Amino acid sequence: MVQNICHHNTNLKDYEMRGGIISPPDRSVPLGLSIYTSSKWSSFLHTSYFIRCQKVGMDSHDEVVQHGDDDDTNIDQEEDTSDSYGSSSSDTDDEEEGALAQRVDHLLSYLHKNEFHYDSYVELINLLRQQGDLVRLRSIRKKMNQLFPLTEDLWMQWVSDEANIAQTEEEKAGLVELLDKSIIDYLSVGLWQKYASYCITEKVGNHNDIRNIYERALTSVGLHLTKGCYIWDDYREYEINILNSMTETDDLTSIAKESLDQKDRITTLYKRQLAVPLLGMQGTWRDFESWMGKDSIDEYTKQLYEQAVEKLDQRMQYEDSLLSVESTLDGYKNYIEFEKTTNEPARIQCLYERSLRNHCLSPELWQSYTQYLDTKLKVWSIAVQVYERAIRNCPWVAALWHGYLRAQERAGGPIEKMRDTVTTALNCNLGSMENDLSLWLIYIDRLRRNIKPGGEDSEEITLLRDTFQAALNHIYNRYETVESIDYLQKYWAKIEARHFNNIEKCRQLREELLNIGHKRQASYWIEYIELERAYGDIQNCQKLFSRAIRAVNDDPEGICQAWLDFEREEGQLSDWDIANAKCQDQLQVISQKRAKAVEKEAEEKKKRKEEKERSKMQDRINRKLAQTVAERNQIDADAPSREKRKFDFDSRKESGITKKSRTDGSLNNPSRERERYNEKTSVFISNVPFSAVEDDIRSFFSTCGNVKDVRLVRAPNGKFKGYGYVEFEDELVTQEALKLDRNTIAGRPVYVSENVDKSKHPTEFKFGSGMDRCTLFVKNTKDISSDRLREVFNQFEGLRDIRCVARKSGRSRGFAYIEFSNEASAANAVKTLDNTEIDGVTISVAISNPDAKETSEFEKNRKPEIRERNESKNRSTSDVPTVTSRGRGRTGLSFMVPRSVKKNDSTTSESSNNSSSKLSNDDFRKMLTK
Questions:
Q1: So what CATH class is 772-858?
Q2: Has residue 74 got a pLDDT over 90?
Q3: Is pLDDT above 60 for 481?
Q4: Which run of H or E residues covers position 779?
Q5: Which of 202, 691, 916, 918 has the most CB atoms lying inside 10 A of its own CB?
Q6: Annotated domain spans of the chain
Q7: What is the average pLDDT value for the chain, to the nearest integer?
Q8: Paired residues of 726 in beta bridges
Q9: Cα 768 to chain center, whole Å?
Q10: What are the b/e assignments for 200-212, b being 16+ CB within 10 Å?
C-alpha cells in the first residue's frame, strides 16, 4: 500500500548534484512563499488593492496569483475597460454598493442585539472585505475572535489581508503577533507554513528565531500523518537555502566550519523526519540517499526508517476510513482507540487535535481529550490550554468548566483567574442547580486549601466566608428552593467548626438550616448534634436532644434512641433517667397521635366506601328509571291517539333528582375553626410556609404581645395546609398583630387579616371602577424597596401609605400604590417623578384609575355557558321548586313522568286544572317494579 503513495515532491525536476550539495533549481524559496516574491508588489498594493476590492469584491491573494509579474499592465487595462462601461454601468455599481452598505448596516445592528450569532459575523466579514473597509473589518474580526474560535479559512483571510498592507516595522510586528495567535484555535499545517514563510520573506527575526518557529510547528503538526511532511520539507529547504547562501561570502576561512555545521543540521533533520510515519516518506528516503550517498547511511537510521514505514502501514487503514465513513467522528474514535494501544502520547494528542479540527462542537470528543490529558499525560500547562479552547467551542458543557477549574488549580494558577472563570461559567446558563453548585464547590475547595494553618480571621478566611455567602445567594435567587442551599450550608458549618474552631458560627448556620424547614427531620438534628459533640460541649448536646424529640416527626423512635445512646456513652445515670422519661412521654404522645390518625383514616375510608356505594345505587336507579321511561315512550308511540312527547332525561338534574351531594363539612372547615375564637381577639393567617410550626408563629407575633393560642389547619394526612388562626389576650394586641401583614417567615410573606365569619359577612368581589385622585400607581418597582419608595415620595406632603404588590412567594410584581391624604400632593408627585430614575431604574407614575370597562369586558369574554348560567340566576325564580331540607323539590318525582302518559282530564274545571294529582312514594316504587 505504502509503495504506491506518491511523494509530494515528485513533480519537481530532478535534483542536480553540485559540489556534494543538492540544490532544487525550481524552489529557490520555501513552499508557499511565491506570492511574496513579486518586485512590484508594494506598488500594486497602494494603487489598486482597495479600489479593486470595492468594485469587484475580489480577494487580494487571488488578484496577485492571477496577475503575477504583469500587475501594472493588467491594472491599466482593467481601468481602461472600466471606463468603457458608460453611465449605465456606473448606475448599476452604485445600486450594488448601496445594497451592500444597507446589508452591512443591518448586520451591524443585528449583532449589536445578538452578539453570539456566528453566521452573521461570517457574512459581515465577507461584505466588509468587498467594501474594503479595513477599520471596521479589523474591529469585527477582533470581536468575533473574542467570542468564538476561528476556522483556518477565516484566519487565512485575516492574515492575508493584513499582510497585504503591512509596511512599517510596527505593522509587521503586529502581523507576527496575529500569526502567533492564529495557530492556537485549531491544528493547521497551512497556518504554520504561512507563519514561517512570512517571517522568512519579511526578515522578521534571525535564523534562530525562524528555527524556533519551525520547531514549534513540528511539535504541533509534525506528527500529522498526511500533512506533516509539508512542514518538515519547508524546514529542511530553509536550512538548505542557508547552506547555499554561505557560498556567496568571500570569507573562505570561516565558511568551512559553518558549512559543515549546517550540513550536519540538515542531516539531522532528514533523520528526524525519516523516523516519523508520514505520507511520502519513500521520496524523502530517496532524497536522503542522494544527500548522504547510499553507502554512507548508518544501520540505526535504516532501522528507524523501516519501523516508521511499518507504523505507516498499520495506520493507513484508519486514514482510509476517514475518507470513506460518512461521519468521520466514528472513524476518528476508532483511530484514537488504536493510537492509545501504542502508548505514544504525542501521536494521541496530535490525532485528537486533527479530529477536533473537523468536529469542534462535539462535547464528547472534548471531554475524552481532556480526560486523557488529566489522567494520562498530566502536563497541566497543556491541559489548561486545551480546556480554554474547549470552553470556547462548547461553553454550555458544565463538565468542561469543572475540569477547567481543577486544571487551573493543578497548574498553580492564580485564584483571581479561577474567580473570573466561575463568573463567566455562571453566565453561560449551565442548565441545572447541580452544575452551578459544583462550580462553587470547586472554587470553595481551592480557597479552603489555600488557607494557612493558624491564620485566624485572615484575608483568606474572610474571602472563603464571603464566597460561601455569595454562592448561597446566587443559588437561592436563581433556583428559589431551600433544598438547593442545604449542602452548601452544611459544608460551611463543618468548615467553621473543624478548620476555624468557630463553634458559634457553626451553631448559627445549623440553626438557620433548622429554621428554613428541617426541624421535623431527624437527620438534620443528628448531624448538628454530632458537630456539637465533636467541637462543642456535652450540655449543648443534651439541650439539642431535648429540642429534637419534640420537633422530629419522621423518625421519633430513632432520635429518642440516639439520645439514650448518647447519655449511655457521655452522661451520668441521672442524665439517662431524665432522657428516658422525656423520651417515653414524647413517644406516648406520638403513639396517641398515630392512633387518632389511624382511626381518622379508617373513618375516612368508611365514608368513601359508603359514598361509592350510594353512587352505585343511584346509578342503578337512574338506569332503571331510564329503562322505564323508554318503555312508556314505546307504549306512547304505539298509541297514535296520544300526543308523542320526548322525555327530557336531563331535566331531572334541574329538578333535584341527582346524586346526593355531600353536605358534611371537611375535617378542617375554616368556619368551624373561627367559631372557637372571638373575632375581636383573633386573626386569620395565610400564605404561611408549609414547614412552619407553632413555635415559628408564636415567635412571629412575639413583638405584639401575649399569644393565647395558635391553631394551624392541617390536611387529613397531618400536613400543614398553610393557614390558621391566632388568638390573643385582648383587642389591642390583635390590632398590633394586623400591622404585621406581609412580614415574612422563612422568606415568605404571611398574610394577616381579621378573623371574620364569611357566612355572616360574605365578601363581594368587584372590579375597581373610577379614578382615585389621592392614590398613585407606580410601575417598574421590581428592584426598589418600599423604604426606598417612602424616601422618594416623602418629599410631598400628606403621604399616607405605600403598598408594594408582591406574589405569594414574596417576590415583587413590579408595581406599587402610593396613597396621599390630598389630591394636590398626588398630582405634584406625578408631575415631578413620572419617567424619572431611582437607583438606575426608570419608574412610571400615574393617578390610579382602574378601567371601569374591565368588569363588563370580563363578563363578555367568559364562556357562553357560564354567562348564560349567570344570567339565569337573575331571572324570576317563581317556577323553581322550593328546596326542602333533604335537597329535593316539593314536587317529588312527578316531573319524571312524561306528559304523554299522564291522564288528560278534560272534565275538570279550569280552576282545578292547575293542580295535578301527586304520586306517592308507593306509586313510584310500583312504577319501577313493573
A1: alpha beta
A2: no
A3: yes
A4: strand 772-779
A5: 691
A6: 1-28+223-324, 605-644, 670-754, 772-858
A7: 78
A8: 683, 710
A9: 41
A10: bbeebeeeeebbe
Per the structure block, which three cell numbers stand in for 227?
A: 500533512
pLDDT at residue 814, as a whole number: 87
How many CB atoms within 10 Å of residue 786?
16
CA 697 to chain centre: 37
Q: What are phi and psi of 397, to 5 degrees?
A: -90, 110
291 pLDDT higher than 50: yes
| Crossing angle of helices 556-570 and 573-638, rounded to 10° | 170
Q: Three cell numbers at 839?
A: 437607583
| Residue 22 burial class via C-beta count within 10 angstroms: exposed 0-12, middle 13-18, buried 19 and up | middle
> CB–CB of 447/415 below 8 Å?
yes
Helix/strand number for the chain, H first, E second: 37, 13
CA distance 212 to 220: 12
Whole-angstrom distance, CA of residue 925 vs CA of residue 578: 70
Q: What is the DSSP letter of 678?
A: -
Closest CA to 551 of 507, 513, 602: 513
Torsion angle of C-alpha atoms 189, 195, 198, 203, degrees rounded to 10:
-130
What are the tens digits of pLDDT across the range 18-71? Answer: 223 222 333 333 333 332 333 332 332 233 333 333 333 333 333 333 333 333
Nearest Cα neighbor of 122 from 165, 157, 174, 164 is 157
**Grid-cell match 364562556, residue found:** 863
Q: 3-class SS at 681?
A: helix
- Domain 670-754 matches domain 772-858 at the CATH topology level: yes
Q: Give the residue from 533, 553, 485 showing the smallest Cα distance to 747.
A: 485
Residue 915 has pLDDT above 60, yes or no: no
CA dihedral 30, 33, 36, 39 (to 10 degrees): 40
Identify any residues that bridge with 683 across adjacent strands, giving them in sequence order.
726, 754
**What separation in angstroms does the CA of 41 have from each of 50, 160, 279?**
14, 13, 35
CATH 3.30.70.330 fits 670-754, yes or no: yes
Name which residue leads in pLDDT, 634 or 175.
175
Single-letter amino acid, residue 746: A
Q: How far apart are alpha carbons 791 and 802 in whole angstroms?
A: 11
HSE value, Cβ hemisphere, 13 Å, CA-based, for 242? 21
- Say if strands 772-779 and 799-806 run parallel, antiparallel, or are unpaired: unpaired
Quote the longest CA-to-CA distance of the chain. Answer: 155
Sign of the alpha-carbon torsion through 364, 370, 373, 375: negative
Higher pLDDT, 704 or 649: 704
For residue 433, how many C-alpha atoms fall within 13 Å in the half-sphere facing its CB?
A: 17
Phi, psi for residue 848 in degrees, rounded to 5: -65, 120
State yes or no: pLDDT of 836 exceeds 60: yes
**Could you tell me if residue 65 is left (phi over 0), alpha (psi between -120 and 50 degrees) or otherwise beta?**
alpha
Long-range contacts of 24-28 (CB under 8 A, 24+ apart): 24/237, 24/240, 27/237, 28/241
How much is the pTM? 0.57
CA proximity to 246, closest of 235, 259, 237:
259
Separation between Cα atoms, residue 23 and residue 587, nearest integer Å: 101
Chain-centroid distance, C-alpha 181: 31
Distance, in Å, from the CA atom of 330 to the CA atom of 595, rounded to the nearest integer, reads 64
The torsion angles phi and psi of 898, rounded to 5 degrees, stand at -60, 145
Q: How far apart are CA 697 and CA 406, in angstroms?
A: 46
Residues whose CB falls within 8 Å of the CB of residue 242, separated by 6 or more in sequence, listed in order: 207, 262
- Tell me the one-letter amino acid at 333: K
Q: Which helix (H) or strand (E) holds 64?
A: helix 60-67
CA 226, CA 574: separation in Å to the nearest integer? 85
Q: How far is residue 130's CA from residue 50's CA, in Å, rounded to a whole number?
A: 9
Strands (E), 622-731: 682-686, 707-714, 720-728
CA distance 256 to 566: 92
C-alpha cell at 206: 534571525
